[in-house]
Amino acid sequence: KFGRNFLAIDINCQEISSELDSIYNHSINDESNIKIDKYYNILDKYSSNGNLVQLGNDAHQIGRWFFKDKQYELAVDFVKIAYKAREKTKPYDPELLSRSYFNYALYNKWLGKYDIAIEFFEKVVSINESEKLKGRAYALSAECYDIIGYSYKAIKDYKKAFFYYNKEGVIKNVLGGHINIGVAYLNIRSDFASKEAIYHFSETLKLRPDFVAARESLESALLQSKKIEWNVPEKNDYIYQFIYIHFYLERSLMILIKKLM
Fold first, then answer.
1. Residue 26: count of CB within 10 angstroms of its CB
2. What are the pLDDT digits (tens) for 153-182?
3. Among 93, 94, 118, residue whose Cα is nearest residue 106
4. Distance CA 251, CA 227 (A)
5. CA-to-CA distance for 114 and 145, rounded, in angstroms?
6. Which residues partner with 15 through β-bridges?
7. What distances in angstroms separate CA 126 from CA 94, 131, 155, 162, 167, one per listed residue?
């Protein structure tokens, strides 16, 4: 086991070796392949010694550095070493393992490998207790489903993400959650989906009436919907009443103009 003086701390408070820290800080002018070889030599040493904790910590951090440098293939390779080491570590640490799963999913998402990304985001939420990380994992998983055309699965994960965002109470995440769900419903292009989209865009505007993107999205949803009488606002809900009446009249006027043309 390494003594405290052998360790440096990265921003996530995972202990990385001072040897790795030294290579990163003193090999700035090295050619990329030379630096990569040095990284692999360190990891080979930990693997040979059976030091899975240090292997996982250093490989995870190397992956983060390569991701920051937009070298996504290398980022994936190193964080894969990290999560495999952390799967074998005893005692098992679900917090550290879930971070490596999350990064592996994220890096694969950037490479367009959405099936792999979804698989590992699911692993994150299955072992991590952090509501914030679960919210992020579900939101990113939903984005993957959205991209590959699985709208209903995207909505399901966006709603799970929204559950955690709503509990967390960060307003920008709550707004983003409503927008994401609304847009996903809008992409389905059915009357029911349009109604759901209208609800989520309206809720966004209730929280922030000056949200231009939500306003434009609501206009699209109202134009797409065949009828909007499904959800007349309550009398005491003045903001919702304003939104409803404004867009109802605007939509009716547009229809009338089209008929007259």
1. 9
2. 999 999 999 999 888 888 888 888 888 998
3. 118
4. 10
5. 8
6. 9
7. 10, 12, 19, 17, 19
